[in-house]
Specification:
Elements (H helix, E strand, L loop, with lengths): L8 H4 L2 H4 L12 H31 L2 H25 L4 H8 L11 H9 L7 H4 L3 H8 L3 H11 L6 H4 L11 H12 L4 H31 L11 H6 L7 H5 L18
Helix pairs in contact: 3-4, 3-6, 3-9, 4-12, 6-8
């Protein structure tokens, strides 16, 4: 299909629609920033889900290079999402308070796309109220997670991934597995190999999610302190409870089991 000679920048990006989506509820100057930042979050979440689907497909195809590229892109997007908090933190508590009441029961905890990202990464424990009526989330908690796809990738490379791990009920939360960790130690023994690079890229994604959680917590503490969050959430207390819960615990656990390489090489000193 040939490019349309009448296509314009604004038309291609649907800028009339996009720029009409910001409808602050008050006259407070800073509400527009709040709206735009959160809308941009949702656009990035949409892209992360788009990339995660490709990542799982590439892992299960055994495509090392493609998996590495896609995982690295997701990690870069997460860095960008975290960086946007720097902009949001230019808003003082008083500035936020000037329009906070207009948010009503709305809350960032209601982000359906972020819940779906969590499910894709392996979370399965969602309140029934989150699952009810959310067909995308219901589907995400039923199908294999990114880590399940990684196990299939490793098995496809001839590594002895336990059959119980490969054939598990993927609608249940993943439990750390010593047998899988043994396989991962074998992968990391060749740390310049493609499988190790793919695993490390997934660690970057996991770390990116954890960094987002931490920075989000500090932003909330900085803005509303210990107040109850909008929508009746526990605010900072809830966010604090989600910290340090990795999506891929086995990839972190093997770090405490890794032995130093025995190269037999004599260190070279000097220039």
């Amino acid at each position: 299909m040939a490019d349309s000679p009448t296509m314009t920048y604004g038309g291609y990006l649907k800028l009339d629609d996009l720029l009409s989506c910001q409808e602050p509820r008050t006259r407070a100057h800073d509400e527009l920033l709040f709206v735009i930042i959160h809308q941009v979050y949702e656009l990035w979440f949409k892209q992360i889900l788009h990339e995660a689907e490709l990542l799982q497909s590439r892992l299960e195809e055994g495509n090392s290079g493609g998996s590495l590229h896609t995982a690295r892109r997701i990690a870069k997007i997460l860095k960008t999402v975290v960086g946007q908090l720097d902009v949001l933190e230019t808003m003082t508590p008083r500035q936020f308070a000037s329009f906070r009441d207009a948010l009503g029961s709305s809350s960032g905890f209601q982000s359906e796309q972020f819940r779906e990202i969590e499910a894709v990464l392996g979370r399965r424990a969602f309140p029934a109220s989150d699952l009810r009526g959310d067909e995308r989330l219901q589907a995400a908690v039923s199908r294999p997670s990114v880590f399940d796809s990684l196990l299939r990738y490793l098995a496809g490379r001839g590594l002895p991934v336990p059959e119980a791990a490969l054939g598990r009920d993927t609608s249940r939360a993943w439990e750390p597995d010593p047998g899988v960790q043994k396989v991962l130690l074998t992968v990391y023994a060749d740390e310049s190999g493609p499988a190790a690079e793919v695993c490390e890229a997934l660690v970057d994604v996991d770390e990116g999610i954890q960094e987002w959680r931490y920075r989000h917590l500090k932003m909330v503490e900085r803005t509303i302190g210990a107040k109850i969050g909008t929508g009746g959430s526990a605010g900072a207390d809830y966010l604090r409870s989600t910290l340090f819960a990795p999506a891929f615990p086995d990839l972190w656990e093997v770090r405490s089991q890794t032995e130093p390489a025995e190269t037999g090489e004599v260190p070279v000193h000097g220039g």
